[in-house]
Design goal:
The complex is a heterodimer of chains A (about 180) and B (about 350). Chain A has about 180 residues and is an alpha/beta fold. Chain A is about 35% helix and about 25% strand. Chain A has a 7-stranded mixed β-sheet with strand order 2-3-1-4-5-6-7, sandwiched between helices. In chain A, helix 3 packs across helix 4 and helix 4 crosses helix 6. Chain B has 2 domains: about 180 residues, Thiamin diphosphate (ThDP)-binding fold, Pyr/PP domains (Rossmann fold); about 110 residues, Rossmann fold, CATH 3.40.50. Chain B is globular and about 70 Å long. Classes of the chains: A alpha/beta (about 180), B alpha/beta (about 350).
Chain lengths: ~180, ~350
């Protein structure tokens, strides 16, 4: 199994940390992982994206031109990455702020209204975990217990009291995700 | 299951330095390697192992602090990215000229000049052919994964001390910024002055004792005949390094009719290109130099009876390809493919270049 994922949105949305938690979850189930971020000016308020690869084999290129899954959180990322999905790939997006929805018919498309849900929960920081939950519902490539272990590994001890909240957000994302086509 | 950490390449450099018993790090921030200094400052190794971490006033100051520390027989290092490494060249030449061990890390970005902050491999000539003045060589290691970033810190120091010669880790923005899982080694203690003398001999300025002459650390000798003898000694050392320290990896080479040669992050892209090409029925292998000096010349030469053509893939205008051509000596076709200025070639582009430049051409 090899899963090649792009996660893309605005800097500050938790794109990079979502990728990191996913990568740590892969390590917890003894997989090879790679996490390759955009860096530099993109980090400073512009768009941010990260490639995450989980595999049972040694990972070759961390630089990819096509992906199995695209998790898209703003319009710029939709414009850039929709066309980079493999035929039969999975696109998950939050419709918030999307003015030109995805057009392709050879991929599976899912929506998760994560911004709306995070606002309803009055906790913007749960946004990325709602999205991650949506992804794991569609593609259960890592076990939930390994995500919890991944959270324990990637969060410093002083933030461990936040893990139950993050797990709730994951569950909400799993409930909210809906297939468009 | 072994305990793995998820780390950036730059963080792995810092962690490895602390754990391998490094005495001091002197650096100055620059993208894309700033996490080395950041991680060291956050880890506060001065509390844990006594290691010194210092942000110098400039790259020039940092490399001269390394010169001083190395002269005392200490395990000292610095890191930077391309423009910063250019600033350090005078110091590196002096350190090589004084026959001192140290570790230098270059997380390469696109150039020339300030260039860009995106990854490149355009500092190959500077690293391998001598970026500073004089007939000297660095031992150059090219990691292709975060685990190798970690492992090569210790290896770099070992080789540097074995040959009393500066070692350089030639990385780039991809390997520096990427996170992968890393298995960490155990802590090695920092050496005392007595242990330094016992292990490496008495060349270091550890304080003069009555039973030996004064140790003088210098790269200056105004007598040309003595300077020539010293140069001959250096050259003998470099030939010994070429004899004993070559490292490389071969992937899918057994039945290969064509060969890719690539190091560091380009070799990762080529690994994928090998898979893609083989799906199309092209029998191609990959030879990945791990040491760039000494270069795996013999390993490439040994492939000549087998392969019909070689493509050197680098994120540069074509620098390492010259060493491939020297190894091949005109016996098979050698071409170069690369992107520049911080653009990273994709695996598909590599396959297309192989078909266009080697198979059809």
């Amino acid at each position: 199994m090899t899963e090649e994922i792009i996660i893309a949105g605005f800097g500050g949305q938790g794109v990079l940390s979502m990728g990191k938690i996913l990568a740590y979850s892969g390590i917890m189930q003894d997989q090879e992982v790679a996490w390759m971020p955009s860096y530099g000016p993109e980090m400073r308020g512009g768009t941010a994206n990260v490639t995450v690869i989980l595999s049972d084999m040694r990972i070759s290129s961390p630089i990819l031109q096509e992906f199995d899954t695209a998790i898209i959180l703003n319009q710029q990322s939709m414009d850039k990455f929709e066309k980079m999905l493999k035929p039969g790939g999975v696109l998950i997006y939050d419709p918030n702020g999307i003015t030109r929805p995805p057009q392709r018919t050879d991929i599976s498309i899912y929506q998760v209204e994560a911004v709306e849900e995070a606002t309803r929960l009055k906790n913007a920081k749960t946004f990325n975990m709602i999205v991650l939950g949506a992804f794991l519902k569609v593609k259960p490539i890592v076990k939930l217990e390994n995500v919890t272990k991944g959270l324990e590994k990637s969060l410093p001890q002083r933030h461990h009291h936040l893990i139950p909240m993050n797990k709730d957000a994951l569950t909400r994302g799993m409930e909210l995700v809906k297939q468009i086509r | 299951m072994a305990d793995y950490k998820l780390m950036k390449g730059n963080e792995a450099i810092a962690e490895a330095a602390i754990r391998c018993g490094c005495d001091a790090y002197f650096g100055y921030p620059i993208t894309p390697q700033s996490e080395v200094l950041e991680t060291l400052m956050a880890r506060k190794p001065w509390d844990e192992t006594g290691m010194i971490v210092l942000q110098a006033e400039s790259e020039v100051a940092a490399i001269n602090m390394v010169y001083g520390g190395a002269g005392c027989g200490k395990k000292v290092m610095t890191s930077s990215s391309s423009p910063g490494i250019s600033l350090k060249q005078e110091g590196i030449s002096y350190i090589a000229g004084a026959e001192l061990p140290c570790l230098i890390v270059n997380v390469v970005r696109g150039g020339p000049g300030l260039g860009t902050i995106q990854p490149a491999q355009s500092d190959y000539f500077q690293s391998v052919k001598g970026g500073g003045h004089g007939d000297y060589r660095l031992i150059v290691l090219a990691p292709a994964s975060v685990q190798e970033m970690y492992d090569f810190v210790n290896l770099g120091f070992e080789l540097a001390f074995k040959y009393r010669n500066p070692a350089l880790i030639l990385s780039d923005g991809v390997i520096g910024q990427m996170m992968e899982k890393v298995q960490l080694g155990s802590y090695k203690p920092r050496l005392t002055n007595e242990e330094i003398v016992a292990r490496y001999g008495s060349w270091a300025t550890t304080g003069k004792t009555h039973d030996r002459p004064r140790n003088i650390i210098t790269s200056l000798d105004l007598d040309p005949y003595r300077q020539e003898q010293f140069n001959l000694k250096l050259q003998k050392k470099y030939r010994e390094i070429e004899e004993k320290e070559v490292r490389f990896e071969k992937i899918a080479c057994d039945d290969a009719e064509y060969l890719l040669v690539a190091y560091g992050s380009a070799s990762r892209i080529c690994q994928k290109a090998v898979d893609l090409a083989r799906e199309k029925g092209i029998k191609v292998g990959l030879l990945r130099p791990i040491t760039l000096f000494p270069y795996p010349t013999k390993a490439i030469r040994e492939m000549l009876g087998q392969v019909k053509g070689i493509l050197a893939v680098e994120m540069s205008a074509g620098q390492m390809v010259e060493d491939v051509r020297l190894a091949v000596d005109g016996k098979v076709k050698v071409e170069h493919f690369g992107r520049m200025g911080g653009v990273i070639a994709t695996p598909n582009e590599v396959v297309a270049a192989l078909e266009e430049k080697i198979i059809k051409g």
